Amino acid sequence: MSRISRGSCVGLMIGLSLIFCSPAVAKEETVGKKDMAFLAGAAGAQQAEITLSRMAMERSGNDAVKQFAQRMLQDHTKAGQEVSKLAESLGMSLTETRTKQQRRSPEKFSQLSGAAFDQAYIKHELSDHKKTVAEFAKKGKAIKHPQIREWASATLPLLKEHIILAKGLAGTLSKSSLMKTLAQP
Fold first, then answer.
1. Would you kindly state where each structural domain of the chain is located, as residue ranges?
2. Per CATH, is 31-183 categorized as 1.20.1260.10?
C-alpha cells in the first residue's frame, strides 16, 4: 500500500506540475502574428533611420544636422540591436519589413545636398517620427507578448524625444534660411 501511495503522489505531483507549468511556458513562447509583424516593422524602421542618418552625416554641411543625424544613428542602431536580440530570444526569424516610402527615401535624398538636403531630411524626420510615435502608441496597447510590449513602451519616450529634437532643429534651419534670404541684395 505504501508503494501505491508513493507512486500516486509522484504521479499527482507530475500531473499538477504539468497542469500549472505548461500553460505559462506555452504562453511565453507563443508570439502572435500581429506582435511578430510589429517587431518586423520596427526592425525595418530602425534600418531606414540608420540609412538616412548615415546619408545625412555625409551630405549635410550643417553641424547641427550632422549632430542630430549622429544621435539618430546611435539611438536607432541600439534600438535595432534590441529588436534583433528580442526576436532571437523569442525564437523568431526576423525578416525586416520596410514600407515603400522607407525603401524610396534614400533615392529621394540622394539627389539633394547642402541646405536643400537639410530641410528635406529634418522635415522627413519630424514627419516620420510623429507617425512612428502614433503607431507605437496605438499598436503598443494591442501587443500581447509582454516582452515586446515592454520594449515598445520603453522605446516610445525616446521616439518622442526625437520629435522634440527635430522640431528644434527645424526651427533653427527655418530661421537660418530666412536670414540668408533677407541678407541677399
1. 1-30, 31-183
2. yes
DSSP at 154: H
Task: Please choose, from the candidates 135, 106, 125, the residue with its C-alpha nearest in 3D space to the C-alpha of residue 173.
Answer: 125
User: Which residue's entry shows cell 529634418?
Assistant: 122
The H or E element containing residue 69 is: helix 63-89
Q: What is the DSSP string of 109-140?
A: HHT--HHHHHHHHHHHHHHHHHHHHHHHHHHH
- Is the separation of the CB atoms in 121 and 109 below 8 Å? yes
What's the rounded mean pLDDT across residues 26-30?
51
Cα separations in angstroms, 135 against 41, 77, 140, 159:
10, 20, 8, 11
pTM assigned to the model: 0.75
* Alpha-carbon torsion, ordered 160, 37, 99, 109, to 10 deg: 50
Mean pLDDT, range 121-144, rounded to an integer? 92
Of 155, 137, 165, 144, nearest to 43 by C-alpha is 155
Highest mean pLDDT among 16-25, 100-109, 136-145 belongs to: 136-145
pLDDT average, residue stretch 101-117:
76
